[in-house]
Design goal:
The protein has 17 helices and 24 strands.
Length: about 500
């Protein structure tokens, strides 16, 4: 197995696309795809990620002001290339349990229910759009690291599939099936998944990766041989369960894991992110989670909110419904009490809108409610619009140049000056902003933590989150190299390309 990155010059060998698909959701496809993006970059290739259709509330703004899933932005970062919409041409952003906003090539094209979205009518247009995006991408990058969605064995959706095996067939990709052994039943899930594929799909699957193995992996040697005999394809690797490598995740299941935390008495700065039903872009808080001075947790429990030193109201895909729920569950009063008690209260995007005096929805963008009183913490009034603003931004914060991005509908204006405000500071302990990623900037972090500085250890230098992320990508690549037969992977990709 290759255990160290190559130091070769840029590689001109053409490889077939590599596609990671799963036996189910949350088996680790996105993380493994991220690892391969970094490995191919290290080995002198020019890789790029691709996922035909993504469903997530965490999204990102490209440099040309369009919107894609956050996972593909992370994978592009691991691949060392700017993200673009061709990497994720179709994005679904749930705005209720039954409907989603559909974003095609970076722009919203409307809301659809699940029933309407999966109809055969109009499906071919979406299929052609995602195929065209892949074709454009494959002309400029080598190899394309593709990712499927959920399980590839959803045979009831085969006719309308545009993200899994139908996409693999269009790309003529070498497919690797990823299975999560932690869930149990790994033999049944792998064998059953492969058995449900039709021959044209089955012949594309070239290997298996078992993910999230706990304990002594040599104990699975016999199981590995059994799987290979049953399935007739190699098990390319068994990846260990790990908690010491941190890669930004967009899946709602990753957020559920964070909800088990609560306030502690560790002496660190306690930061609570108010848990909203339609929370979006919770990757905004990954840098704070890594800061050794901070204990960050998510909660909609009023007692847990009151224990925090800093309360952050995050972004929301449905701001008005989430604001209503904050009132119904008592969180709004807990937030107001925190402000009254001198705690810091910060709102980001939808949270910023909630902190104002009123949210107006004349076009019924979010609901049938046209006017909703805000929390009244900031003297701003927000009017929602049908147009979405998606843009990367640079801004100065305490004389430091900072970066972030905006993804929102609506404009917030000052009650008195009637000017639009991207950010509004009522005081150092009460402010809001439309800028996602603002907390990735050391100047901002140091400022919000400064009131607690006397009780916290002094860092030798500000926490550099961008550099930290690059280190994590390298650690992830090393882990995969150590546990996956990369020689075999390259053999598969080169043989497929030669046919």
């Amino acid at each position: 197995m290759n255990k160290t990155p190559a130091t070769n010059p840029p590689c001109t060998v053409s490889l077939s696309p590599l596609m990671l698909v799963g036996t189910g959701s949350d088996v680790g496809k996105s993380i493994i795809a991220t690892a391969f993006c970094r490995i191919f970059l290290q080995d002198g290739y020019h890789p790029a990620p691709f996922k035909a259709q993504n469903m997530a509330l965490n999204s990102y703004a490209t440099s040309d002001g369009l919107e894609i899933g956050r996972a593909q932005a992370v994978q592009a970062e691991a691949a060392g290339v700017p993200c673009e919409t061709d990497m994720n041409p179709l994005l679904l952003k749930p705005n209720s349990d039954h409907s989603s906003q559909v974003i095609l090539n970076g722009k919203p094209i409307g809301n659809q229910s699940a029933r309407d979205y999966f109809r055969k009518q109009g499906r071919e247009e979406l299929r052609q759009a995602v195929h065209a995006a892949f074709d454009r991408l494959s002309q400029r990058f080598n190899p394309i690291v593709m990712e499927g969605a959920g399980s590839i064995a959803e045979i009831n959706l085969r006719d309308v599939d545009i993200v899994n095996m139908s996409m693999a067939q269009h790309a003529q990709a070498s497919v690797i099936l990823v299975a999560d052994i932690e869930r149990g039943g790994v033999f049944a899930s792998v064998y059953g998944t492969l058995s449900l594929l039709i021959p044209e799909e089955r012949q594309l699957v070239k290997g298996i990766i078992i993910n999230k193995f706990r304990g002594d992996m040599s104990l699975f040697d016999e199981g590995r041989k059994m799987l290979e005999q049953l399935c007739g394809i190699p098990v390319l690797g068994v990846l260990p369960y790990f908690t010491d490598i941190h890669i930004e995740e967009e899946d709602s299941l990753s957020l559920e894991k964070k909800q088990s935390q609560a306030a502690t008495h560790s002496g660190k700065v306690e930061i609570v992110v108010v848990l909203l039903r339609h929370i979006s872009n919770f990757t905004d808080f990954d840098s704070l989670e890594r800061d050794p001075r901070v204990h960050l947790y998510y909660s909609n429990n009023t007692e847990e909110i009151q224990k925090a030193d800093i309360v952050i109201i995050p972004g929301s895909k449905s701001t008005i419904p989430d604001l209503m729920e904050l009132r119904n569950n008592g969180c709004s009063q807990a937030i107001l009490q925190a402000h009254h008690d001198g705690k810091t209260v910060i709102g980001i995007c939808g949270g910023y809108q909630m902190m104002g005096e009123e949210i107006i929805d004349p076009h019924h963008v979010e609901s049938t409610i046209e006017r909703m009183p805000g929390l009244g913490l900031l003297p701003i009034i927000t009017t929602l619009s049908q147009e979405k603003r998606t843009v990367q931004v640079e801004f100065e914060y305490k004389d430091e140049l900072c970066k972030g991005y905006e993804i929102h509908t609506g404009t917030s204006v000052g009650r008195e000056d009637r000017k639009a405000h991207r950010t509004y500071h009522r005081s150092p302990k009460c402010w809001g902003t439309y800028i996602h990623g603002i907390l990735d900037n050391p100047a901002v972090i140091e400022d919000i933590l400064s009131p607690f500085a006397p009780s916290q250890p002094t860092l030798s230098e500000p926490f550099d989150y961008p550099s930290y992320k690059q280190t994590q990508y390298n650690h992830l690549a090393t882990l995969v190299r150590q546990n996956v037969d990369m020689d075999k992977v390259y053999e598969i990709l080169k043989i497929k390309n030669e046919k």
